Batch of 2 targets.
Target 1
Amino acid sequence: MKPEEKNFEKYDQFTLTMIPGAFAKKMRTCLIFQAFRFAVINIKMLVVVSKSH
Amino acid sequence: MARLVIMGGGVSGHTAATFARKWLGKEHEVIVVTPNSQWNWIPSNIWVGVGQMTKQDVVFPLAPVYKKAGIDFKQAKAVSIHPDGNADSDTPYITIESTSADTAGQTEEITYDYLINATGPKLNFGATPGLGEGTTLGEHTVSVCTADHAVHANEELRKIFDKAKAGERQKILVGTGHGMCTCQGAAFEYIFNIEHEANKAGVRDMLDIKWISNESFMGDFGMGGLHMKVGGYVVSSKLFAESLFAERNVPWLIGAHVSKVEAGKAHYEQLDGTIGVEEFDFAMLIPPFAGVGIKAFTKDGSDMTDKIFAPNAFMKVDADYTAKPYAEWKASDWPRTYQNPDYKNMFACGIAFAPPHLISKPMKSVNGTPINPTPPRTGMPAGIIGKAVAHSVCDMIKNGADAKLHEASMAEMGAACVASAGKGLTSGTAAAMTVYPVVPDFETYPGTGRDTDYTFGEIGLAGHWIKHILHHMFIYKAKLKPGWTLIPE
C-alpha cells in the first residue's frame, strides 16, 4: 500500500475525501517551487487587499 | 476642539485610534480606553500555545506607543454610555472603571464628541458550563484566545506530551465549545500545530487527536464555506478541509453543540439529535463571543441598552436587522458605514458591531438547539473597518457632521488568512487562503457568491513564510514605526 493510502482505512469519513500523494507533498516543501508560489500568493493577496480598501 | 473616544485597543480600535491621530490636528483629542496594558498580535497566540513563541513575542506595552503618538491612554474597561448626557449636562459621556494595578476599580466619566466602540468580544466561557481557560475560569479546558491563555495551554500540552512519552495513551480534543461559536480558524490552526509538534516530539502515535466543531460541514468557517480554484477545478472548502484532517489522521465530529464540560468529558448534541460524550485528556475549546456588556442610559438615567445594542450585546449599526428567512438574505443587509442609527456621533467596528444575521445557513438540531457558526469579523476586516470608521469621524470633525461617510462593507471586502501547521521555515505546511468577498454576494457572483479569481486556498511552506512576515509586519505597524501607514490592514 502506498503511504498516502494508509489513512483511508482508518476512519470511514476519510474515505470520502482526497489525500495528497508523494509528489504533491514533496512540492509543498520544495524550496524552489515554494519560492515561486510565495510570489504568486503574495500578488494574489495584495490584489485582494487592494480591492478591499 | 473635538474629542474622539475609542473604546477598545485591539486590531480595530488600535487601527482607528492611530489613523485618527494621524489625520486629526493636535487641537483635537484622541482617547483610547482599553482594559489591557498590552497590545496582542492574536494570530500568533497559536504558536505560543504550542511553545514555539513566548508571550513577549506576541505582545508589547501600549502606553509608550500612545504617548509617542499623542493619544491619551486610559487602562480601563468601559461600563456605560450616556449619549444624551445626564440631568446636569447635554454633553455625551461614557463611564469607565480602571483596570490598572494602582487604580483598579476607580471609576471616571469621560465626555466625548465622537465615540467608536471597538471593544472586541467578551469571551463567553459561561455559556457552556465547565468551559474555561484552565486557570481562573475552570480547569477542564484551555484556550488560546489571549497570550496568557496560550501560555497556560502550552504548559498543559507539554504535560500531555510527557505522559505520551512515558507510554500513556492520551486523547486531545480541539474545536468549538458551544453551538454558536465563531473563530473556527483559530482552533483549526491550533489542532494542526499540536499535530505537528507531536510529530516533532515523537509522540504522535501515542495521541488520539480529534476535532469537534459547530460547523454543519467541514470548512464552513462561519462563512458558509467557500469555493476556490484548485488544479483547474472550482472546489468546495469542505473537500479542502477534510483532506487536511484525513492526511493528518485527525477524525472530526461536526454539527456539534458542546453543552457541558466536566473533568475529561465534553457533553455534546449534534444536529441530528445525537447526544454524546467525548472523553479527553487535553481540550482546547474556543468559547462563543458576546458583546462586552456595556450599558446605555438616557438623560434621565433610564436603561436604553436594548436600543443601542442587539440582544447579543453587540452595537447596532447601519445594517438591516429585519428578521427574514435565509433565502431572502442579501449582501446589502450588511453595514457599510458602521454608524449607529440613533446617534450619528457613535460608531462600532471590528467584532463590536452587531451583524445583521449569520453568514452560514442557520441550523437547529432536531431538539431545537441552534447549532451554527456565527460570522467572523476579526483580522483584516476588523482593521479595514476600523480605518474606514476613523476616516468618517475625522471628516465629520473637520468638515461638519454632514460629511460623507466612508464605507467598508464586508460584502465588498476580502480577507486573507494563513493557518500554519508548525513554525519552521523549511518544515511544516500552512494553508494560505483568501476569500473575496467575506460575505457572499449571490447577485454579483451568481453560483458561489464569491469571485473565484480571488478566492483561493493553497497548502505549502510559502504560507509559513507569509505567516512569519505578517507577524513581524503587523507588530511593526502597531508600534507605529517609520512607514507604518504603508502597511495595509
Target 2
Amino acid sequence: MRTTLRTAFVVASLTLGACVTINIYFPEAAAERAADQIIDDVWGTDPGSEAPAPPQSQTPNALRALVVALVTGFVSDAHAASGDIDVSTPAIDRLKSSMQARHRQLEAFYDAGAVGVTANGLVDVRDLKAVPLKDRTKLQALVAAENSDRDALYREIARANGHPEWEADIRSTFARRWIDRAARGWWVNDGSGWRQR
Amino acid sequence: MSLFFCGRADSISVLEYEAAQLTFPGGAVAGLSAVLSLETGALRVRADTVVLPDVADPIRALSLDCKGAELTPRHLICESGRVTFDHPWIGARDSEVTLVWNRADDSFQIDAKGIEVLGGAGSIRASGSAEAWSLDLALEGLEVPHALSAANWALDVAKALDGNGHLGFRARLWGSGSHVGGGTGSIQFRGVDLENDDGTLGIEGLQGVVKGQWNNEQGHMQFSAETELIRGELFRDPIYLSVVESAPVSVSVRGTRNRGSIRIERFDLEHAPTGIMGGALEIELPNGPIRGAELAFDRLRLAGIYQSFLGSMFDPEERLGFDVEGDAAGRIRLTAGRLSEVSLQFADLDVSSSVQQLGITGGAGDLEWNAAGTPARSTVRWQQANIYRLPVGPGEIAVEAQGERFRSLSPTTVPILGGKLIVDSFAAEHDEQIGVSWRAGGRATGISLERLTDALDWVSMSGDVSGILPMARYQANELIVDGALLIRAFDGTVTATGLRLKRPLGPGPTLEANIDLRGLDLRALTQTFSFGKIEGQVDGWIRGLRLVDWRPRAFDAYIGTPVGYSGRRRISQEAVEELASIGGGGAGAQLSKGFLGLFNEFAYRRLGIGCVLDGGTCTMRGVSPATHGYHLVEGGGLPRIDVIGFTDRVNWEELVARLIAATRSGAPIIQKEVR
C-alpha cells in the first residue's frame, strides 16, 4: 500500500510538474511607472492634467504568473515578472537627455497644435500651417529626430530589461502615457483621429 | 432674327433688333435684343448669355443702357452707358461704359470704367475690329482670395491654395476673331500670403512684380517673363528663402507651351545670398510633373544655402552648430521626373562646427554622378580637417560612382598627427531601407601618441599608433572596425579590437572596444604620468570598454606584472605612496615617517591593480588576495614592503580624481588609514 501511494505521489508530481509552463508576463504596472518617470524627465513637471498612473496592482496575467511561479517554486521568475523596469542604463540616459533637449524646441510646436502625440508612441506633424514658414523644415526634422529617439528608447528599454520581445508592449504603454499626460490644449491621436486635450 | 422699324416710313423713330441665337467664331450670343430710339438716343441691349472664345462659363444677363446714344451714317456712339452682367468668376457686376462703333470700317472701341471686380476696381478697353482687336485691362487692389477663386477654372493648383493680400493686374491682349494672338502684362504682389492645404508650399508678405509677354500662333505659345521679388518669405518644402530689399530675387523665364507640356527653354534665377542658377525644364500639363530638367548653377553660395534650408534639415537642433562657407557650380539633370545626372564643382569650402565635431578648411572637389550607371569619377580635396579634436592634414580622395554605389579608385593617404592614415579601399552605397552605409579598409602608421594625447587633452604619452584595419563598416549610424588597431607605446603594445562607435556625429556617441596591453615598460609609464618611479613590465587588458559621450561607463581593466617576468623590479617610495593613495588609504603616507623612510626604493616580486567598472563604481582588485584585502604590490627582498588595498569598491569619479591628483601633485592626498 505504501509503495502504491508513493508511486502515485511520484507520478502525480511528475505529471503536475510536466504540465507547468512558466511564462514571463509583461509587467504593465512597472512599465507605466517607467514611462511616467521618463515622461517626467523629458516633459518636465507634469504638463497635462493630473492623470495619475493606474493603481499599481498586479494585472490578472501577472497575478497568474505569480501564483504559478510560487506553486512551482520559481519565485525568482515571478519577481522578474512583477519587478521594476530598469530605465537607468547609459543608452537610455542618453536618449532621454537628447529628447529632453529637443523638447525645449518642440514644446512651442505642441502648444501651437503643429505637432501632436500619436497612438504608436511617436509624434507627428499635425498642422504644418501652424508654424511660420521659416520653421517648417526644422519642425519636420525635429519630428523625425524625436521619433528616431523614441523608437530607440522603446527598443533599448526592452533590451536593457532582457526582453527584446517586450518592445511592442513598452511602446504601447508609453503611447498611452504620452497621450494621457499631454498638456491641456495639446493634440493627441489615439487611433481615432486628432483631438485636443 | 428680326429687325423692326417703328414710325412713319419717312421718319423712323425706333430701331429694334432681335436674335434668338447669334454665333461668331468660338462664341455665341443667345436671347439678344437691341432697341435704339432715334428721337431720344436711348439704346437698350439685352442678351441672355454670351459665350466668349476659350472661356468656360458664359456671361449671363448682359444689359447695356445708354441714354444719349447717337447714330450717324458713320458712327454709333454711346458716351455714358451702363453695362451690367453676371459671371461665375466675378459675380454680378455693373460699370460705366463708352462705346463707339465706326460703321464705315466696322471697327469699335469700348471703354468700361469703375468695374468692381475681385475685390478691386479697374477699367477695360476693347478696340479694333473683329479681324484685329485689342483688349486692355487695368485692375488694382484685387484681393487674393477672390483672385484665387477666379483662377480656379484655369489652374488646378489654385483650388488648393488659400491666400491674402492684394494684387495689381495690367494686361494687353490682341487677336483676330476668336484667336488670341498674344499679350503683355504684369502682376504686382502687395503683401501677398499664399498657402496650400498641407502647408508644404507657402508665401508670406510677398512684394514684387511679374512682367510677361506671350505670342500665340496656331496653338503654339511662346512666352517670357521677368520676376523681381523684393520682400517676403518663400517656402517650398524643404526650401525656405527670406527675401529682403537689399537682396531681392530675380527670375527670368523664356519658353513655349504646347498641348500637353510647358517647355522652359531658359530660366535664370539670382538671389545674392544663395547664388545664381539657370537652366531649362519641361513640365507636363496639367500641373506637372516635371518631365525633364537641366539646372545649371553658375554660382551657389553654400553659406546661404546652408542657412536657407540645408541647416534646418541636417542639424535642426543646432547641436553641431555648423558654419559653412564656400562656392559651388555645376549642373543637375532630371529625366522623367527623376534625378539622372549631377556634375558639381565646389571650392573654398570651409566647414566649422561650434562644438568641434567636424571641420574642413580649403575643401574643393568635383562630384560627378549619373543614374544610368555609367561609371563617373569624383574627387574631393581638402587642405585641413578635424574630426572631433584630431587635426587631419591635406588629402584627396578619388571615387567612382555607379548608380547608388561608390568606391575609391586608389589608396588615399591622409597625414594625421605626424603619421599617416592610408585608406586602401572605400566603398559606400545608399539603400532605401537602411540608408547610407560605407566600408573602408586601411592602415595607420606612425601616428604620434604624444600629439594624439595632446589633441585629446589627455596626459601626454610618448609612442606611436599603427595598425591594420582590414575593414571598417558604417551602417545604421554605427561604425564597426574589424581587425586590430595597434599602438606602440611605453616600449610595449596596446592592441584594440572589437571597436564599435555608435552615433559618431549624433548625441551621446558610444564607443565599445577590447584593449590588450603587452610588455609596457613601467619606468616610461610612471615617468609619463609623474607617478613616482617603478621599474618592471606590465601586461593587462581593458575588456568590455564602453564609453558614452567619451566617458567610461563600463570595463574590466587590469594591469600587472607578467607571469614569468624576470627583469628588474623596483618601486620608489613615492610610487608606493601614490599607489596607496589611489587605493584610498594612507598607509603609504606613513612610509617616510618611519624606518622605511631611509630607503628610496624597494624591490618587489610582482604588482597588479584592476578595476571592474559598473554602475559608476569600480570594484578593485590587486595582483593577489591578502588578508581582508588584496596585494597591489607583493614585496621581494629586504626591506620587504607589501602594499595592500582594503577598499573593495570605489566610486569611479572619486578614483579618477585621485588619479589626476596623484599624477599632478606627486604626493598622496588621502590621509586616512586604508580601512
